[in-house]
Design brief:
Elements: E1 12-14, E2 18-20, E3 25-27, E4 30-31, E5 41-42, E6 54-55, E7 60-62, E8 65-66
Antiparallel strand pairs: 1-2, 2-3, 3-4, 5-6, 6-7, 7-8
Length: 67
């Protein structure tokens, strides 16, 4: 759970469900393993259907799950 885990000084909210701090990316308050916070960003414009909704330098994500 996000409370007590996230670094409040570096935390940034990304859309409705994602957020990140200096060390982690979160989806719905839970950390996503293996993400790169420095390069993590939401897909713009928002995707339709099964397309990824976020990316980092390593992979794409949909609903917080690696694709």
């Amino acid at each position: 759970d996000l409370v007590g885990t996230a670094d409040t000084l570096s935390f940034v909210r990304l859309g409705k469900f994602y957020g990140k701090d200096a060390k982690n990316v979160y989806y719905a308050g839970k950390p996503i393993a293996g993400t790169d916070p420095a390069s993590f960003e939401l897909v713009d414009p928002p995707p339709i259907g099964l397309m990824p909704d976020a990316t980092d330098k390593n992979r794409s994500y949909k609903y917080g799950e690696p694709q």
